[in-house]
Amino acid sequence: MTDDTDAHTDRDRDRDADADTDTDADRDTQTDTETETKTKPATDDSSRLPAIGPGRLALYGALLALVIGYLSPLYGGLTTAFKTQEAYRETSPLQPPIEGITVDPWVTAGGELAMGMINSFALTIPAAVFSALLGSLAAYGLTKVNWRGQAFLLALFLAAVFIPYQAVLVPLRQFWSIVDISGLHERGELVELIITHIAYGTPICTVLFRSYYQTLDDELIEAARLDGASLARIYRKIVLPLSVPMFAVTLIYQFTQIWNDFLFALVLLSDRANYVVTLELNALQGAMATDYGVQMAGAFIAALPTILVYIMFGEQFAKGQTM
Amino acid sequence: MADLQLDAVTKVFTERDGNQITAVDDVSLTIEDGEFLVLVGPSGCGKSTTLRMVAGLESISAGQVRLGDTVVNDSKPKDRNIAMVFQSYALYPHMTVRENMAFGLQESTTMPDDEIERTVESAADMLGIEELLERKPDDLSGGQQQRVALGRAIVRDPEVFLLDEPLSNLDAKLRAQMRTELKRLQNDLDVATIYVTHDQTEAMTMADKIAILNDGELQQVGTPLECYHEPANLFVASFIGEPSMNFFDVTRDDSRLVHDHFRYDLSNETGDELASAQGELVLGVRPEDIDLQSTPDGAHTYATVVDVVEPMGNENNVYLTIGDEQTQTFVATVDGMHHVEAGETVYAHIPESAVHIFDRQSGHALRNRTVESTTIPETKL
C-alpha cells in the first residue's frame, strides 16, 4: 500500500514538475521576445560602435554635466569641511584640501550637535515606528474589514495628507499649551513633538499601506477567518508579516520626514536641552557665522542618519515600491 | 457528522445606487452526510455566492442554512465547522506548508502542539506531500499548492467540505488526474461536500448529485445521468453534455413536428404522451444519438451535408447542415472509424426514442428520451 502511494506521488510530482517547466518555458519565451524587442535597437547601435552618433555623444555630455552639477556642491561642502579657516579663504571650494587639511571642524560641529543628535533619534525612531504601525492598522481596517462609514473616514485620512504645516502651527501651539505635557517633565516638549509627528505622519502611511493591502488577496483573509482567526489575530499572523516591505517604505519615508523637520521643532521646542539636530544646526550657523568648515561638517553629520537608513532598508524599500 | 440543508436560501445585493440584485433566488438543497454535490452553472449564476453563504463569508438575505438540526445563519465562519478550498488556494505565503496546515488547528482548537503536529503529518501523508512540509507555497507547483490547500482543509476534520473551483488553475492533464484523486479523497473522508464549478465535465465525473444553477435559480437537482438523460428544461439540456444537445425549433401539427427544413412524424404513443403539447416546441437530440447512414433508410431520416468534421480519435464530431440555405446546423457524434468527409451528403437518422421535446416558451421538458430503467441508478434523494 505504502509502496503504491509512493510510486503514485512520485509520478504526480513528475507531472507537477512538467507542468511547472511548461509554464516557466512560456514565461521565458515571453520575456525573451520582450527583451528582444527592447534590445534590438541597442544591438544595432553596438554594431556601429566605432562611430558613436552625435546625438548619443550629446546625451552622454549632458548626463555628465548633470552629474557634475549635482555632485559639486556636495564635493565642495566636503572639501570645505576639511579645510582650516585660512585654507578656506585662500583656495577655491573645489580645490582638494591638501595644504591646511584639518578635522577640527568635525570635532567642533560634533561637539555642538551631539545633544541634538540624541534628541533627534529619541524623537524620530518612536514617531516613525508608531506612525507606520498606526497607518498599517488603519489601512487594514479600511481595506479588509467591511463596515459603515468607511468612505467618510478614508476621505478624512486623504484630506489630512494635504494639510500644510503652516496652517496648523498656531492651533498646534495653543493645543499643546492646554495639554501641557512639557509642564509635567522637562522632556515633555519632546513627547509633544513625537505625538505631533505621529498624528501628522499617520495619514500618509495609511494611504501607502492601503494601496498595498488592496492588492492583497481577499481570499487569504477569508481563509484565515474560516481557520478561526479573529480580526486581531489575522492582522498579527497574516497581514503584519506580509507587510514587511511596506514597513520599510513607510519607515524610510517617515524617518527622513521627521528627522529633517524644522518647523514643528521650532514651534514646539523652547528648552535648548530638547533641541533636535535641525535646530542645533541652525544655531551652529548663528554661532559660527564665518566658519564654513564647521557648518559644512555639521550639515554632513546631521544628514548622515538618513543616508544610513536608506542603505539599511534600501533592498526592502525597492521591493516595497515595486509591489 | 451531519446533513447540510439549504432551505429557500436567497441573497440580495444592494448596489450603491439602491438597485437590488438577486444573486441567489430561493435555493433549496439537501446534502447528505458523505454526499458529493456539485453546484454547476455558467459564471455569474450565483453558485459561488451560495457557497460563500454556507461558509459564512456572505450574509444570508432570506432562508435558512442548517447543519444537522442547527440553524447556522448567524454563526461565525469559525463556529460552523466548515472547511473551504479557495480557487486561488489562498495559502499563507509567509508560512511553510506545515504552518499553513497547522494554522486552523492553532486558531480554532485547544489541541496541544504535539497532537497538531501528528494531525498535520497524517493529513500530509494522506495527500502525499510529506516532503513538502518545510517548503513555502511559492516554491511549490500548482498541483502541489492545490494539495496543500486540500490538506489545510482536511486537517480540521470538518463536517462540511466546500470547494470553490479548485481545479480551474491547473492544466488540463493535471486537472483530469486531480479529479479522480479528489473524488477518492472525498470518498475516504466521507463528509458532505459542495463542489462549485462551471465545468460540466467535472460535474458529470465527480458528482453523486448535480445541482444546476442559472441566474440564481436552481434548474435541476439529480444524479449526473438523470440530468443528462432527463433534463428538466432547455437550459439543463444545453448545459450538460459536450458537444451540446442539438435543438430544432418546431411547431406541432397534429402527429407531426414541423421544422423549416423537415417534418418529424410522431408515433401514436408519443403523440398521446404529448397530448397537451401544442404550438411552438423545441425538439432536442444528443449528438451521439444521431446515426449517419449513406442511404436513406426508414423513417426519421434526413438528407444533410457535412460541413466540418472534428476527429477526436475515438469518435468524430460531424457538423451537418440541413436545408437548401444551410441555415440549420447540428452536430452528430459518430465512431472514430466511421469515415465522413466535408461536402459529402449523408442521411441523419434521429430515432424517436432519443428525442426530447421542450416547450419553447417556458423551456420546460415535455418529454425526455426513453431510457431503460437499468441505465439510471436510483437517485439518493
TrEMBL record, chain A:
GO cellular component: plasma membrane
Membrane spanning stretches: 57-75, 121-140, 152-170, 234-255, 292-313
Gene3D superfamilies in the record: MetI-like
Keywords: Membrane, Transmembrane, Transmembrane helix, Transport
Biased composition (Basic and acidic residues): 1-47
InterPro entries: MetI-like (IPR000515), MetI-like_sf (IPR035906)
GO BP term, pick one: transmembrane transport
Subcellular location: Cell membrane; Membrane
Predominant cellular place of this UniProt entry's protein: membrane
Protein's recorded name: Sugar ABC transporter permease
Domain ABC transmembrane type-1 intervals: 117-313
Disordered, as annotated region: 1-48
Keyword Nucleotidyltransferase part of the UniProt annotation: no
Similarity section: Belongs to the binding-protein-dependent transport system permease family.
Top-level taxon: Archaea
Species name: Natrialba aegyptia DSM 13077
Database matches in Pfam families: BPD_transp_1
PROSITE patterns with a match to the protein in the record: ABC_TM1
UniProt membrane topology term: Multi-pass membrane protein
UniProtKB/TrEMBL annotation, chain B:
Record-listed E.C. numbers: 7.5.2.13
GO CC term (a single one): ATP-binding cassette (ABC) transporter complex, substrate-binding subunit-containing
Domain ABC transporter: 4-240
Annotated Gene3D superfamilies: 2.40.50.100, Nucleic acid-binding proteins (2.40.50.140), P-loop containing nucleotide triphosphate hydrolases (3.40.50.300)
Pfam families cross-referenced by the UniProt entry: ABC_tran (PF00005), TOBE_2 (PF08402)
Top-level enzyme category: translocase
Record key words, sorted: ATP-binding, Nucleotide-binding, Transport
Top-level division of the source organism's lineage: Archaea
Major site of localization recorded for this protein: membrane
Topology within the bilayer: Peripheral membrane protein
GO biological process: carbohydrate transport
InterPro entries associated with the record: AAA+_ATPase, ABC_transporter-like_ATP-bd, ABC_transporter-like_CS, ABC_transpr_MalK-like, ABC_transpr_MalK/UgpC-like, Mo/tungstate-bd_C_term_dom, NA-bd_OB-fold, P-loop_NTPase
Key word Nucleotide-binding present: yes
Record localization: Cell membrane
GO MF term set: ABC-type transporter activity; ATP binding; ATP hydrolysis activity
Record field: catalytic activity: D-xylose(out) + ATP + H2O = D-xylose(in) + ADP + phosphate + H(+); L-arabinose(out) + ATP + H2O = L-arabinose(in) + ADP + phosphate + H(+)
Sequence similarity: Belongs to the ABC transporter superfamily. Carbohydrate uptake transporter-1 (CUT1) (TC 3.A.1.1) family.
Function: Part of the ABC transporter complex XacGHIJK involved in the uptake of xylose and arabinose. Responsible for energy coupling to the transport system.
Subunit structure: The complex is composed of two ATP-binding proteins (XacJ and XacK), two transmembrane proteins (XacH and XacI) and a solute-binding protein (XacG).
Listed name of the protein: ABC-type D-xylose/L-arabinose transporter
Organism, as annotated: Natrialba aegyptia DSM 13077
Lineage: Archaea, Methanobacteriati, Methanobacteriota, Stenosarchaea group, Halobacteria
